[in-house]
Design a protein that fits this description.
- It is globular, with a radius of gyration of 17 Å.
- The chain has a domain of about 160 residues: Rossmann fold (3-Layer(aba) Sandwich), CATH 3.40.50.300.
- The protein has about 230 residues and is an alpha/beta fold.
- Helix 3 runs parallel beside helix 5 and helix 5 packs parallel to helix 6.
- It is about 30% helix and about 25% strand.
- It contains seven helices and ten strands.
C-alpha cells in the first residue's frame, strides 16, 4: 500500500546569483511499513526533504502526498495539525518540555487534541522503549539515550502514518545510538510503523530495508535490501 508519494519536488532558496537549489526534481514512493534510510553528504538535501515531507517547509514546485493528502498545499495551521496527527518527528535534539514529566511529554500530542490515550498501546510503547519506570521523572533526570527514547515514544503515541527521524543518534555515543536504531527497528516490526531515517552514518543506514542516496538535491541511488523482518513483540 502506497503511503508516501513525491512528484517533481523542487526547493529553491534565494534568487539570482545567490539562488540555491536544495532539491531538484525528487520523485519518490514509499510503501506502508517500509524502513527507509536517506543518506548523503552535508548539503545534499536530506534535511530539506524531511522538512517538506513533514510539512515543516513547503516546496517551490511539486507535490507531496501522504495517504493521498497533499501536504504541500497546506497552510501553516493545517500543516501543524497534520504533523501532530499524521507525522511523528524525531530530531537530534530531544525537544522535551523540561518542566513536564516523561509521561506528560509522551502524551502531549494527545493532550493538545484533548484525546484520551489507549492505555494498552501506551504501555506497549513505553515498555518496549524501556521507559516504564521513568514515567514520573523529569527529562533532566534521564540520560541522553533515555530522553531520545522518550522523544520516540512521543512521536509514536498518535500512531502516525509516517515517522521521520532526522539524525536521531547524532547527539549520542555509539552504544546509545545503536540502541535507538534498535528501537526504531522494533517499532517498524512490531507496529508496522513506516520510517524514514535521515543519517550521514552509512553503518546505521545499513540497518534499514531500503537506502536512498541524495546528491546535490537529486536521488542518485535507491537500493532495496533483501532482508526479511524478524518477529515483532
Amino acid at each position: 500500500m502506497e503511503l508516501l508519494k513525491c512528484e517533481g519536488l523542487r526547493k529553491v532558496y534565494g534568487a539570482g546569483d545567490s539562488q540555491v537549489v536544495a532539491l531538484d526534481g525528487i520523485d519518490l514512493t514509499v510503501q506502508k511499513g517500509e524502513f527507509v534510510a536517506i543518506v548523503g553528504a552535508s548539503g545534499s538535501g536530506k534535511s530539506t526533504l524531511l522538512h517538506i515531507l513533514g510539512s515543516v517547509d513547503r516546496p517551490t514546485e511539486g507535490r507531496v502526498l501522504v495517504e493521498g493528502t497533499d501536504v504541500a498545499s497546506m497552510n501553516p495551521t493545517q500543516g501543524a495539525i497534520f504533523r501532530r496527527r499524521k507525522v511523528g518527528l524525531v530530531y537530534q535534539f530531544y525537544n522535551l518540555i523540561p518542566t513536564l514529566t516523561i509521561r506528560k511529554n509522551i502524551l502531549m500530542p494527545l493532550m493538545l487534541d484533548r484525546r484520551k490515550p489507549n492505555q494498552e498501546y501506551f504501555e506497549q510503547i513505553v515498555n518496549a522503549l524501556g521507559l516504564g519506570d521513568r514515567l514520573d521523572f523529569l527529562p533532566s533526570q534521564l540520560s541522553g539515550g533515555q530522553q531520545q527514547r522518550a522523544a520516540i515514544a512521543r512521536s509514536l503515541i498518535y500512531r502516525p502514518a509516517l515517522l521521520l527521524a532526522d539524525e536521531p543518534t547524532g547527539n549520542l555515543d555509539r552504544k546509545n545510538g545503536e540502541e535507538i536504531i534498535d528501537m526504531l527497528k522494533l517499532s517498524n516490526r512490531s507496529l508496522n510503523q513506516t520510517i524514514l531515517l535521515i543519517t550521514h552514518d552509512e553503518k546505521l543506514a545499513l540497518e534499514a530495508d531500503r537506502i536512498i542516496t541524495l546528491e546535490d538535491g537529486r536521488i542518485v541511488s535507491d537500493h532495496l535490501r533483501n532482508r526479511a523482518h524478524g518477529p515483532g513483540l
